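lol forgot to send this yesterday, sorry. struct tokens for the thing we talked abt
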């Protein structure tokens, strides 16, 4: 039986063992050949040829990359009828053929030498052992020979597999080869029958029984094929079981965003530590499953507690502590064949009995739970979490080691401390596996649930707040709160409102930095910043749900003494340093939902008290309403001066800007050109293609005019299909050139969609002070010249524009002059 291909690189012990086997086999072969003896050379040649042919009829062994043939039958015949040297040649040639004839993988010289040497040792040992039996007891002789040959042929190969793959020898031999023992016994029976035929008739007569070998080979193949199918079925069931476990782990990820990478790393750590500590196969299977599922009980914990980027309150921790019990109850329904449930139930127990849920200590805690607890702590401290940044791995390991004998099993900590760097490299080399769940996909179908939406109001102050011990301080607080609510209600300016809030809050609460974030397009944008790290906070844009303030906005719950460094984009550069160490954040909820977040940052650790939180919660509804009103007022102001369709300034804004420009020109004695532009063919576009197409044309033209203006020019929509441009400091020649350029721009802007080729532009120009001294005179003169240019264009045939395509109309010089003069 040849040595199978090694699945892993061989260790030094395996190399030494292979060397010993090869050396022993070489000695056995040389010793046998030195005393060559053959009673019937023709019989030897015939048996050898048949054995070589039969060796090529090999079958693949299930479970590993090895093969097996029925050449052992001729070795047993040789033991009973031929000399040691003849049997040695027959067996070694058969083994060599089995290794080299159609191998599953390219044959390696070490594998071939080991297989031949192992066969030589097995044959030599078989002859030595059977020499104690009288030769007339043929049945006993062959039975003993088959048992000895089976052991000497399979045990050395099982040993090299065990050394190479780091598996127990007895289990490897039992799983890989022990099942084939009955075939050796059957082979001994056939060899005895062939031996009887040979003695009663002659050895040529025994050749008539050789077809039986073919049927044995076919039976072999069918039997091993069935074993392979059963093994594949078991593996498929095991893979299905593993995928079920991984699916349950994804259910945890749906609640806890840090779980995805955490579970993968913890599984690698605990599996290798379990092997290091000589756990049984059943315990290793349980440990692998528990590494993935130990936090499944968090499904029963509210999401805002799991993802909270700050310290938990006592009530929140009580809710968190139920997750080992809930996880164990969930997994009991699965019916695992290995002890997964005790590990999950006890993975938060401490070595000194201070853990939960049952306060187990010492050896009362399952070994798998002890390993998982230490590894879980190490990986959690070395990973980014919502409430803090990751520690360096060495520092995290030092912290775990400091808890040896109190929180964690000292033996487990010693193993972890010795192997953690190697385990970290192994964990980083593992594939990432399945991507995250699609938790943030927006579903556009579905209007409302059958029972309607929940109607929720603004958050209320927490009940049972402590009263201030000083009556004077209480009166001062009431007075300041009254000032805040009065002042912010008297302004419709966002900036003024936020400035008043910051100034009054500083007299109530001690803080180093205040940031008031406004919600815009699912992001928190800092609208007011005052204090330390002004530039850093002013540059932040925080997505909803991320960081400290993002979590507050998404969950509409406050955070007391959170960690400022978890804000996205804050202190991501290791070169940056900040003294801010705590934060107090409350949501600002208006009538239409979350308006923003008010966050105070302090340089001291735990700088804010519950009393500070109470004050913010008292005034946050009023602040939210004031900010919401100020934002609505700003929107109304913008809409009063902005055209709703093109987003250009409207006629009201145009007159204000024109008056300001004329005042500037009077002060500096400079020129100003007013261009009045009217779209030709726009009415036909609306009549033929509808108002939606007309609106598209207006938007495209407005965008084109705005894009091609100088940064100090001004474009506005006068109304209908008329646009006005204010252009400081242009002479007559420049105006004529700009008019022609505008006509080209408008032609290309209107060349898209169904109305292609139907829209052009007539332009009239008026210049201050030559054509008028106020806005009305300038606009009237520009309007007169625009209609003059329009009439002139109607009398002029269209000719192609050079370089602009054959469909682009161009006015003659008379039309241009009519527009500019």
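and heres what i got for the seq, position by position
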């Amino acid at each position: 039986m040849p040595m199978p291909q090694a699945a892993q690189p061989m260790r030094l012990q395996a190399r030494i063992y292979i060397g010993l086997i090869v050396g022993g086999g070489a000695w056995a072969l040389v010793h046998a050949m030195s005393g060559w003896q053959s009673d019937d050379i023709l019989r030897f040649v015939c048996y050898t040829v048949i054995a070589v042919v039969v060796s090529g009829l090999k079958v693949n062994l299930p479970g590993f990359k090895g093969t097996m043939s029925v050449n052992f039958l001729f070795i047993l015949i040789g033991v009973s009828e031929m000399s040691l040297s003849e049997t040695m040649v027959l067996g070694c040639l058969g083994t060599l053929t089995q290794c080299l004839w159609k191998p599953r993988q390219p044959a390696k010289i070490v594998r071939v030498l080991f297989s031949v040497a192992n066969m030589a040792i097995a044959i030599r040992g078989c002859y030595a052992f059977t020499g104690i039996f009288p030769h007339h007891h043929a049945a006993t002789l062959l039975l003993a020979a088959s048992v000895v040959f089976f052991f000497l042929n399979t045990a050395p190969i099982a040993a090299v597999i065990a050394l190479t793959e780091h598996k127990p020898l007895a289990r490897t031999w039992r799983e890989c080869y022990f099942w084939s023992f009955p075939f050796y016994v059957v082979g001994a029976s056939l060899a005895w029958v062939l031996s009887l035929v040979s003695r009663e008739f002659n050895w040529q007569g025994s050749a008539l029984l050789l077809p039986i070998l073919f049927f044995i080979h076919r039976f072999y193949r069918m039997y091993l094929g069935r074993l392979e199918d059963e093994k594949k079925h078991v593996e498929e069931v095991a893979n299905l079981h593993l995928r079920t476990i991984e699916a349950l782990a994804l259910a945890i990820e749906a609640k806890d965003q840090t779980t995805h990478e955490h579970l993968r790393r913890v599984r690698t750590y605990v599996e290798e530590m379990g092997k290091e500590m000589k756990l049984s196969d059943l315990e290793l299977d349980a440990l692998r499953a528990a590494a993935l599922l130990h936090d499944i009980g968090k499904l029963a914990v509210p999401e805002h507690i799991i993802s909270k980027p700050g310290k938990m309150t006592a009530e929140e921790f009580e809710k968190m502590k139920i997750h080992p019990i809930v996880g164990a109850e969930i997994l009991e329904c699965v019916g695992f064949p290995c002890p997964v449930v005790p590990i999950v139930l006890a993975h938060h127990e401490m070595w000194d009995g201070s853990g939960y849920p049952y306060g187990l200590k010492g050896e009362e805690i399952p070994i798998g739970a002890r390993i998982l607890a230490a590894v879980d702590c190490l990986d959690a401290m070395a990973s980014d979490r919502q409430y803090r940044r990751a520690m360096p791995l060495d520092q995290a390991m030092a912290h775990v080691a400091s808890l040896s004998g109190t929180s964690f099993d000292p033996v487990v900590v010693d193993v972890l401390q010795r192997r953690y760097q190697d385990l970290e490299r192994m964990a980083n080399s593992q594939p990432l596996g399945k991507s995250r769940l699609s938790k943030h996909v927006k579903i556009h179908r579905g209007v409302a649930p059958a029972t309607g939406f929940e109607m929720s109001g603004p958050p209320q102050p927490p009940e049972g707040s402590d009263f201030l011990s000083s009556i004077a301080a209480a009166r001062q607080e009431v007075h300041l709160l009254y000032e805040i609510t009065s002042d912010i209600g008297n302004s419709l300016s966002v900036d003024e409102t936020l400035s008043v809030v910051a100034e009054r809050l500083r007299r109530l609460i001690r803080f180093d930095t205040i940031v008031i974030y406004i919600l815009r397009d699912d992001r928190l944008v800092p609208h007011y910043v005052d204090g330390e790290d002004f530039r850093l906070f002013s540059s932040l844009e925080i997505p909803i749900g991320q960081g400290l303030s993002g979590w507050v906005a998404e969950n509409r719950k406050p955070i007391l003494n959170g960690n400022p460094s978890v804000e996205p984009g804050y202190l991501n550069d290791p070169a940056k340093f900040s003294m801010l160490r705590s934060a107090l954040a409350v949501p600002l909820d208006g009538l239409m939902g979350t308006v923003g977040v008010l966050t105070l940052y302090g340089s001291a650790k735990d700088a804010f008290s519950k009393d500070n939180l109470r004050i913010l919660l008292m005034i946050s509804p009023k602040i939210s309403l004031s900010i919401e009103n100020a934002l609505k007022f700003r929107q109304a102001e913008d809409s009063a001066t902005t055209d709703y369709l093109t987003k250009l300034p409207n006629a009201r804004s145009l007159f204000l800007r024109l008056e300001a420009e004329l005042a500037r020109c009077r002060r500096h004695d400079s020129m100003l050109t007013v261009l009045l532009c009217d779209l030709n063919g726009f009415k036909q576009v609306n009549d033929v293609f509808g108002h939606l197409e007309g609106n598209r044309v207006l938007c495209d033209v407005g965008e084109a005019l705005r894009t091609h203006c100088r940064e100090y020019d001004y474009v506005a929509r006068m109304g209908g299909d008329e646009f006005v441009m204010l252009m400081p400091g242009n002479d007559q020649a420049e105006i004529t050139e700009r008019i022609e350029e505008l006509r080209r721009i408008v032609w290309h802007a209107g060349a898209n969609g169904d109305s292609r080729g139907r829209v052009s532009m007539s332009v009239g120009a008026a210049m201050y002070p030559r054509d008028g001294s106020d806005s009305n005179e300038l606009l009237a003169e520009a309007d007169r010249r625009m209609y003059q240019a329009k009439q002139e264009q109607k009398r002029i045939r269209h000719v192609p524009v050079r370089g602009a395509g054959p469909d682009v109309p161009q006015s003659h010089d008379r039309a241009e002059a009519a527009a500019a003069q």
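Residues 454-471, 797-820 have pLDDT under 50 and may be disordered. anyway ping me if u want another try
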